[in-house]
Amino acid sequence: MRRQSGFTMIEMVVVLLLMGIIAATVLGRSIATSDIDLNSETDNIRNHLRFAQSEAMKRSNMVWGIKCSTEATVQYYWLFNGTNPDLPANQVRLPGVSYGGDNRARTADFGVALNDFTVFFNRIGKPYRAFASYTDETLNTPVSASNPLTVTVTSKGQNRAITVTPETGLIR
């Protein structure tokens, strides 16, 4: 008489099912939704920067950029074209962003806070920093290793950084 050993197919399926349920429970408790929200908003802001750069490269006669500025206690964030980001006629609505009255979004509506920054992209996508308005490539400060541009996204005590690479404008 042969001795039978091993597991039946039903026993193996039950064990795998139980392992899957336990793994899903542990994984679900280890990832907080605030981490997911912060990562999602960081990706959105990164994509907005890329959008401004692509618009500057598509429309070679204009400078495009993004500005984030705090006025009183409210922080605003907006896309602009032209050399003066503060001029309302130059402010453009970002795709996929909800707005109140003007073309500037409140960062609190995203659930995040950003450091104040202004970045301009020229016709080849090269990033520049300017503190008032962009004049031209010779008078403004390009983003460089000695003058980097890092956007810090903060939510619920956690930070994520977005860096704009000198010369190429690669946004990571």
Mean of residue pLDDT values: 85
Unreliable residue stretches: none
Instruction: Note the main sheet.
Output: 7 strands, antiparallel
How many E strands?
Answer: 10
Provide the structure class.
alpha+beta
Q: Structurally, how many domains make up the residues?
A: 1
Shape: elongated
Radius of gyration, Cα only, in angstroms?
24 Å
Q: What sequence of helices (H) and strands (E) makes up the elements?
A: HHEEEEHEEEEEE
Figure out the total of helices: 3
* Helix percentage range: 25-40%
Q: Could you tell me how far the N terminus lies from the C terminus, measured between alpha carbons in angstroms?
A: 68 Å
Strand content: 25-35%
Structural notes for this entry:
The protein is of the alpha+beta class and 172 residues long. It has helices at 9-30, 33-58, 107-110; strands spanning 64-71, 74-81, 91-92, 105-106, 113-114, 117-121, 127-129, 141-142, 149-155, 158-164.
